[in-house]
Amino acid sequence: MRTTVAIVGGGYGGITVAKALDEVTDVVLIEPRDTFVHNTAALRGLIDPQWTEQRLFLPYDRLLSRGQVIQDRAVRVDTRSITLASGMRIAADYIVLATGSTFPFPAKVDVDDSAAAKNKYRATHNALANADNVLLLGAGPVGLELAGEIKAAWADKAVTIVDPGRDIVAGDYPDEFRAELRRQLDALGVRLILGTSLREQPPSDAGEAKTFTATLHSGQQLTVDIWFRCFGVAPVTGYLADDLASARQENGHLKVTADLRLAGQQNVFAIGDITAIPEAKQAGAAEQHAAVVASNIRTLLHGGDELTTYQPGPAGIVLPLGPKGGATYAPGWHGYLDADAVSQIRQRSAARPNSLLHLDILDAEATSQFKGADLMTDVYAEIFGLHQRHR
Ligand SMILES: Cc1cc2nc3c(=O)[nH]c(=O)nc-3n(C[C@H](O)[C@H](O)[C@H](O)COP(=O)(O)OP(=O)(O)OC[C@H]3O[C@@H](n4cnc5c(N)ncnc54)[C@H](O)[C@@H]3O)c2cc1C
């Protein structure tokens, strides 16, 4: 008798589990969007409408060969079943929760329909194209990446980043990594105002073309034509019912065991941004969780009980500033690249003057080569059976 594995959420983690188990058992992937959103490339999509048209939204129809993708939203999940917004109920032997997180547009998309999402990117692109002065709230990876994209496309626009923190990119990264990013931002002409914030909310919506003057708590005033919110990630876990809800922490993250089962559960797993694992929330981590869960479900299906555990790697990040800029912190190269690519990048980076390779920091050229130039769109096009598309 075959077993049903229901995966709730078709983002980076969910698609990886679904594909890994597709040939093994009956997979049902539940996802409200009509396409996968490759949000690693979302900020380039705002700048370049061709990217929005061709590279951001990838249809699910060629992802699985046997499994089923159901376009619907889970509104209630218990230990053995999932109730969808349509009223349909799906019984499952194993459930994988992979509902990820939200982030303000344009970094993540806040509508399920890809045509509506493309329209939103296009309208916001037009508003941004006409703005001379841009304000970005948040000096984390999204704020910096967006600043880099804007400057790479429109060098003349004035871009200011405001953040109450004392430095850019909070997290367990070496100071030299931040210094390298600050050096490049300075060279691009991006203005950084740290240690302060706006006295009042802007009078316009984020991404709306409207000139206004903002006053900061430091007393400085900024006149800008458009602004974007570049902070505010939030896990999506409001659908857990009964026993499952006790695994949810106050901040919405879910407690998981070392083998990535939901705390207190035998047949329900959780992966990706929704987990309370103390590590940076990244697609790369979601995919590694997915590999562990797929392997564990396979073991359970075969009657085994020796499950694989997940070990978070050291904090690493690839932070492009436009197609040709940015920096990467890759301690121990944990899970980032295959061995040949590592050795090539190492050789080329080591040969450059002022290389920070001894600190596991890669410069702009290596960052571009590794990710910034194509933002991994070819990798995901291939996963979705579309690899001829960009050539
Ligand atoms: C601009 C930007 C760039 C980034 N770049 C990188 C990068 O280069 N490398 C990297 O490793 N990470 C990157 N990240 C982080 C990365 O996007 C997240 O860590 C990743 O999306 C998490 O994957 P996930 O599978 O947990 O969830 P998500 O990718 O958020 O997917 C969750 C899915 O679940 C669906 N869903 C939500 N609620 C329900 C429901 N009730 N029922 C059914 N389905 C539901 C959603 O529609 C969505 O498709 C970036 C993030 C941003 C914002």
What descriptive keywords fit this protein?
FAD/NAD(P)-binding domain; alpha/beta; single chain; 5-stranded parallel sheet; 391 residues
Task: Give the spatial strand order of the biggest sheet.
Answer: 5-2-1-9-18
- Architecture of the largest domain, CATH level 2? 3-Layer(bba) Sandwich
**Arithmetic mean of pLDDT:** 93
Q: Which stretches are poorly predicted, pLDDT < 50 over at least 5 residues?
A: none
Instruction: Note the main sheet.
Output: 5 strands, parallel
Helix content: 25-40%
Structural class: alpha/beta
The CATH H-level homologous superfamily of the largest domain: FAD/NAD(P)-binding domain
Instruction: Give the termini separation.
Output: 43 Å
- Overall geometry comes to globular
Q: Give the percentage of residues in beta strands.
A: 15-25%
Structurally, the number of domains stands at: 3
> What is the highest CATH level, the class of the largest domain?
Alpha Beta
User: Measured on Cα atoms, how large is the radius of gyration?
Assistant: 22 Å
CATH fold call of the largest domain: FAD/NAD(P)-binding domain
Report the bound ligands by name, code or SMILES.
flavin-adenine dinucleotide
Number of helices: 10
